[in-house]
Amino acid sequence: MRLAIVGGGAAGLSAAYYARQAAPDLEITLLEADTRLGGKITTVREGGFVLEGGPDAVVRYKPWALALMQDLGLEADLVSTLPARPSALIHNGREALPIPPGLQMVVPGDLGALARSPLLSPFGKARATLDLLIPKGPSHDEAFGRFIKRRLGRQVWERLVAPLSGGIYGGDPAELSTLAAFPQLKALEQEHGSLIRGAMAQRKKRGTREAGQLFASLKSGLGGLVEALQARLEGVHIRLGASVTGLERTHIWRLHTPAGALEAEAIVLATPAAVTGSLLEALHPEAAAALRQIPYGESATVSLAFDKKQIPPRVGHGLLMAANQGFAARGFTWTDQKWSGRAPEGLALVRAYFSGISAPEPELIRLALQDLHRLWGKAPHPLHTWVFRWPEGLPRYTLGHQTRVERALRAEELPGLFLAGAAYYGVGLPEVIRMGQSAAHKAVGFLQGISQEQVPI
């Protein structure tokens, strides 16, 4: 039996790993169009620096990434963020103010901390507490910006929730589907009748988490996960620079590449939505159309190294920017203050995150320095710079996303075809790994069923 996995990012690598664990004798081929594995996991280690071009952490309360790391024997390499109070701030255009502690996802779960927060005016705080009295709304989907403003008011949205959610998904967070991007918040409203009341219940259930207990990475960066996965893919045929240009389905699957065709009884498509849609155009037009309708937003990160003596003291792990305040970047991470061992002694490592900006590398560096000059009063010339551009960034879960996903997944009606990736049920590494694992188990189950059917009675 043969399984072909298209896409060598986190979803495809996870699918290959879990398929190999479940079926040691299965013939598995992984095809990746790029010349490297890992997708948006891009760790650079040079000159004593360890920096991430894509994601830099996983959240601990979503278990799938940590479970995979532990299964790979990486538990001793797990690290938490360095202690910091406050851990993050939001810049309102005039000053950087601490994010109130006690947030559950992006919602206040500590009324005392909310009351003391300088982020909100007395009116904004009073309006937020009306959430405790406002009847719960309908259970159907609504735009995320409207949902938060209905419950907590415009000020909480503009000064707190929009910067936080925009830092997760990019683009305009107001347009996100609440049910697709933040289903837990809709559930809190329906169960508790109030976001604050629900967030307080969640906080009590989970206990008070320091920021360092919330996020995790690896000592060598998240690229260590890719390297460990690749090392454990015993017998998996990995083909880099192998773009799949077409699919055919007869009694088996036939995958076309510039180097020739490949046959398999089952396939996992762990590719961006537009790529998956183009491959399914002739095989399942309805799914292909739905996949093409999932929008992606361009993003980029710029990491800059400075002499610590030449920059002012920085607070916490970084800061986010409130919308419409004239900043080009969505936020900055003080990487050397967030993680241990990421920069040589005496040097600072700063990362800027951009969303929705299409610009060449020199312009992105200029924009990052322009923002830092505004924040610091002056920005010295960086000692080193690293730019990572993601033209297809992250999928955007806009209104109607759940319907699009439901239609897209109808492609799995085709025998032996399974989908995985960030386009469906979550853009974070834990969710992507979970979907890769699920696709692997479904594919192995399908192949075992075929194998049993072929056994003579």
TrEMBL record:
Record flagged with keyword Oxidoreductase: yes
Oxidoreductase listed as a keyword: yes
Substrates-to-products reaction catalysed: coproporphyrinogen III + 3 O2 = coproporphyrin III + 3 H2O2
EC nos: 1.3.3.15
GO terms (BP aspect): heme biosynthetic process
Keyword set, alphabetical order: Cytoplasm, FAD, Flavoprotein, Heme biosynthesis, Oxidoreductase
Principal place of residence: cytoplasm
Matches recorded under Gene3D superfamilies: FAD/NAD(P)-binding domain, protoporphyrinogen ix oxidase, domain 3, Protoporphyrinogen oxidase, mitochondrial, domain 2
Protein's pathway: Porphyrin-containing compound metabolism; protoheme biosynthesis
GO cellular component, one term: cytoplasm
Needed co-factor(s): FAD
Family statement drawn from the similarity comment of this UniProt entry: Belongs to the protoporphyrinogen/coproporphyrinogen oxidase family. Coproporphyrinogen III oxidase subfamily.
Protein name per Swiss-Prot or TrEMBL: Coproporphyrinogen III oxidase
Organism: Meiothermus hypogaeus NBRC 106114
